[in-house]
User: What shape does this take?
Amino acid sequence: MREGACPCGAVRYVIDGPVRDVLVCHCDACIEATGGPWAASAATREDLVVAEPGAVVWNRARISEHDASRGSCRSCGTVIFWDAPTRPTVSFAAKTLGDQSQLEVVGHIWLGDRPVPAGPSYPRGLPAFVAVPWRR
Assistant: This one.
């Protein structure tokens, strides 16, 4: 079981299952929403439980190929979740996870023409042939 929370603690969540290693999204929408590239892990929808769902405000992503929404803390405004309703997973800000020690950054996505950081990177989203590790 893993636990996470926004900086002010108003949004708390638990994950009872594995989490995906970290992908860093460099898309314009993530940069606009968070102030920079967004480092995200993910959990299956059924393994993620938010303690107080009313503490999260959901806004549709301005740009999304997946009709996604971002979930932010109603109190401090931190973007915590990214949810595409047709996907079996929900992404969450890796920095909000209490214990991040086992997670590794495995790639950078949606770079477009931006400078390429160290490690695997992809100009668009993650290609289907790339397997990202999941950890208990």
